[in-house]
From TrEMBL:
Localization in the cell: Endomembrane system; Membrane
Gene Ontology biological process terms, A to Z: methylation
Pfam family, one: Methyltransf_29
Entry keyword annotation includes Electron transport: no
Stretch forming the signal peptide: none
Lineage, broadest ranks: Eukaryota, Viridiplantae, Streptophyta, Embryophyta, Tracheophyta
Membrane-related topology note: Single-pass membrane protein; Single-pass type II membrane protein
Name this polypeptide is given: Methyltransferase type 11 domain-containing protein
Coiled coil residues, start to end: none
């Protein structure tokens, strides 16, 4: 590009003139710099080119489309969940009964309607109205429910207790209340307590409506269930010896079981107690027992009450209407037998555990193990609760058909849980 000299003599610096070639190159470089800056300025200040603008619009359109698809999927999921919830409610009957249905009797509408509290909002509970209690499955048997609620107000109730029991067995529990008078049956010949515990009664004091047999002799000639064969004969039948005389190693005696409770047994609950003999034997030991039963093929509840004992009319599918930790003893025989899924038995066992106090006794009395698997399921379930095994006997017995059956009898003590 030519030479540049720096001579220092008089204190000034002098440069030789640049050549024409070098000047041209410098001008070219300057022009390039200016041009580049102009293009950069244009790029930052001008609107996007059509191709770039098209790409931007296409990108925005794709994002919008994806957003719409995601929103559509979420709406479909929400609709499916609502539909599934509604199907579940319809299957289980959780929805309220439609009171606008013209087929619903007026009495049922009157019962199910919410009633405002006369003094307004309750300060302690916060409620403003009373809601009627009715089983969640009643809506699935609306035809039977309508039949049950058709009656004359302030008149006699129809003799339809068997209809009510049919509703209970279909899960319609509790039943709605009715404003009619139940049939009164004179209870002639009842003896005072405790003489009433072992008295054979007259057939006339029981209601035989809806029952195949019309007298006690007919009932005693039949095996109504595994725990009731001749169980209405209190004088000459097997009932007189139950719980005081054992027929086998699976038959525990009441005195032996009460001894395991260390004298702390005062009140008990009997599940599926037949004609009430367990409660009667306990009453002789100054222990009050509530017997849960239904009138399946026989007037069990009336018979128990005639003996001066306490029956409670409910199925084992119903949550026991007792507060927690209340009973010293719970007794169950084959009334504990629940067919179907294991969870159903678990629900029952947890409810038994709930009402039984810590240290209380659970007496499993001659439970029929129809299969080895059934025995294993029950054993695992008992072990899950951590009960102490005070007595545990598995034995065989020959049934009426000559076949061997396996029975489990046990006395278990509920642990103290923190």
């Amino acid at each position: 590009m030519g030479s540049v000299s720096l001579k220092i003599g008089d204190g000034t610096a002098r440069f030789n003139r640049a050549t024409l070639c070098s000047s041209a190159v410098n001008l070219l470089m300057l022009f390039s710099i200016i041009t580049t800056n102009l293009f950069a300025l244009y790029a930052f200040t001008s609107s996007p080119e059509p191709e770039h603008h098209s790409f931007h619009l296409s990108h925005q359109k794709n994002i919008s489309l994806i957003s719409e698809q995601v929103s559509l999927i979420l709406r479909e999921i929400d609709a499916s969940q609502k539909k599934l919830t509604q199907m579940e409610k319809d299957l289980l009957g959780y929805e309220s009964i439609d009171l606008s249905d013209p087929s619903i009797p007026t009495e049922l509408k009157n019962f199910l309607q919410h009633h405002q509290l006369p003094l307004g909002k309750d300060s302690r509970t916060g409620i403003t109205e009373m809601v009627a209690s009715v089983g969640h499955s009643c809506g699935k048997s609306l035809d039977l429910m309508a039949q049950f609620m058709k009656y004359k107000v302030n008149g006699p109730c129809p003799e339809d207790w068997s209809l009510g029991q049919r509703l209970i067995l279909q899960g319609c529990e509790p039943l709605p209340r009715r404003r009619c008078f139940a049939k009164s049956i004179p209870k002639v010949g009842l003896l005072p307590y405790p003489n009433s515990l072992w008295k054979n009664f007259s057939d006339s004091i029981f209601s035989w409506s809806g029952i195949g047999c019309k007298n006690l002799a007919c009932l005693n000639s039949k095996k109504l269930n595994r725990d009731c064969a001749g169980c209405f004969d209190l004088v000459n039948g097997y009932e007189k010896g139950k719980f005081v005389k054992g027929r086998g190693k699976n038959d525990f005696l009441i005195e032996d079981v009460l001894a395991l409770g260390s004298g702390g047994t005062r009140i008990g609950f009997d599940i599926g107690g037949g004609s009430g003999t367990f409660a009667a034997r306990m009453a002789e030991k100054n222990v009050t027992v509530v017997t849960a039963t239904l009138n399946v093929d026989a007037p069990f509840s009336e018979f128990i009450a005639a003996r001066g004992l306490f029956p409670i009319y409910l199925s084992i599918n119903h949550r026991f209407p007792f507060y927690d930790n209340g009973f010293d003893l719970v007794h169950a025989a084959n009334g504990l037998d629940i067919s179907g899924r294991q969870e159903k038995l678990e629900f029952l066992m947890f409810d038994i555990d709930r009402i039984l106090r810590a240290g209380g006794l659970f007496w499993l009395d001659n439970f029929l193990c129809t299969s080895d698997e059934k025995k294993k399921v029950l054993t695992r379930l008992i072990e899950q609760f951590g009960y102490k095994k005070l007595k545990w006997v598995v034995g065989e017995r020959i049934n009426g058909g000559g076949n061997s059956e396996v029975y489990l009898s046990a006395v278990l003590q509920k642990p103290v849980r923190v």
